[in-house]
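The authors assume throughout that readers already know how a fold can be written as discrete tokens. For illustration, here is how one protein appears when written out as sequence plus structure tokens:
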Amino acid sequence: MFTRIGIALLTTGALGAAANPAVADLSLDVSPVRVQVHMKAGEEYTNAVRVLNDGKEPVRLRAYVEDWYLDEIGTPIFRPAGTLDRSSSVWMDVAPADFLLEPGQTKFVRFTVQAPASMADGGYQGSLLLETLPLDRTERPGMQMFIQGRVAVMTYVTIGNPRRAAEIRSMATVRHDGKNFVRMQIANTGEDFVRLAGDLTVVEGKDAVGDGSPVPDVPVLPGATRWVEFEISPDRLFANYLARVTVDIDGVGRLVGECPLDPAKVQLLD
């Protein structure tokens, strides 16, 4: 798995000069962007992230670690390393921490996870951030206008054999932004990460109506809840139809939830 980021670097020349700004388009390929590690307390794990500059301009990068979590709609929120209870970033070392990539050049950023011997079984998360820096380290403030970009490599670290559990908390048919959705809230009630798989099927009695929709392959962090939505076309909204979601979670089992697709019961959301 890889990701590509585009970055704009805007330079204005010497302070007070009348030079026209020049924009340089930078592009990076980073792989992998997600790392899952299963290890015992006290063990060490080392891997590397490949960074390719496939743009036409050199780029300088800083590598560092941060904590992160997901809000209820799956947006990653970053915090300083060691801020969150389930932080693994405080166990991570990265090298090199500052480097230059010429056009077409590839470098590898190594990271090592050293799990403390005293860590309890469970899921912990951290991230390796790659952030663009001004090319000239000696440039005085005001000499350069710089638009920053960064990409995160998410790490999921499972220590030992933690308890894994999850449940569907609620399901309802809702309407927002002019569209209809089945909205499901799923909770991770265990001590390890879970990823979702499965499908949503519209049923009438015992019979399926049309093809199913896949459950998105998304993570739910330990102790967290997450909303998952499935768009429903208007021709599936009937009083005698049900939406049935089947979620398969490795190590947990199969979760099943249902809600009516009665148009009279659609909830309007702001």
Remarks:
- The longest strand covers residues 59-70.
- The radius of gyration is 23 Å.
- Residues 92 and 113 are 5 Å apart (CA to CA).
